[in-house]
Amino acid sequence: MSQHQSWITVDSCVYDYINEAELSQNKYFKLFHLAFRCMENLGLDFFYQVKSVKLPVNSNKTVTLPPDFLNYNKLGVLNGNGELIPLQYNDKLTTFHDLRPTRIADTQSENFTNYYSYSSPVFFNFWNGDSYYNMYGVSDNSLYGGGFKIDIHNGVILLDSSFNYEGLVLEYTASPQEGTEYFIPVQFREAMIAWLAWKDIANIPSSRKGNLGDKRDRRHEYFEARRNGIIKYRPFYLDQAYLQSLDNQRLVVKS
User: Fold this and answer.
1) Taking the complete model, does pTM exceed 0.70, yes or no?
2) Phi and psi (nearest 5°) for 77?
3) Are 224 and 237 contained in the same domain?
4) What are phi and psi of 28, to 5 degrees?
5) 62 pairs with which residues across the strands?
């Protein structure tokens, strides 16, 4: 059993099931992928591995996402102390021509630009033919220096035209890969094993392995283990319940 304090590896759950069912080690890779489907079903997919990488900025102010990217956690640049200074998400950035080298030029307009006044630190975003002024009547300098948007479909991070760094740091949740250790709370060990026992035969015809009753029983055992795991993961403490009861009584008296 591979356990670190209150965490256990996904591998140990897979091998626990292999040993209990007296299966061949050749089934490891099938069970490994089933285990990650279990993590999604249990709502534990946020325990996937989190990676931190430094990525170069392309000439059109985009950054190519890693091939194993699932979700971003942080995105920004490093300061002199090695701290990550996050960029602000800007959902107004367009994905128009985001794979073309001319993306910046293609998304700019003669009458709608972002002109930053250094004497007066606000954005003026409309050219009336003679001067710039704020089209909407509300100044906004919050995006100056690096807003971003992620285009999952095309696999790129979009940066605004004011971003002046050659690279950025991305912390992201990566898709599962064999040979990497993944940890889950130990309270979900039995649920993981029950899931593997169920899904191992769930889609195999009854004439080959396991009858319908066996599949039904294994499914029931999984949901029971899942329910128990959730209860143990969020335990009931008498002292906390007592304090909550006192708080409720005070509210009743006040009302």
Assistant:
1) no
2) -125, 160
3) yes
4) -55, -50
5) 158
Distance (Å, rounded) from C-alpha 18 to C-alpha 23?
Answer: 5
Structurally, how many domains does the chain consist of? 2
**Do 102 and 119 fall into the same domain?**
yes
Q: Are residues 148 and 63 in the same domain?
A: yes
The range of the structural domain enclosing residue 97 comes to 50-174
Same domain for 219 and 136: no
Dihedral angle computed from the Cα positions of residues 182, 40, 177 and 50, in that order, rounded to the nearest 10 degrees: -60
Q: Can you give the three-state secondary structure of 162-230, one letter per residue?
A: CCCCCEEEEEEEECCCCCCCCEEEHHHHHHHHHHHHHHHHHCCCCCCCCCHHHHHHHHHHHHHHHHHHH
Same structural domain, 68 and 148: yes
What would the pLDDT profile of 1-36 be if each residue is shown by its tens digit?
A: 555 568 899 999 999 999 999 999 999 999 998 998
Structural contact between residues 83 and 52, judged by C-beta atoms closer than 8 angstroms: no
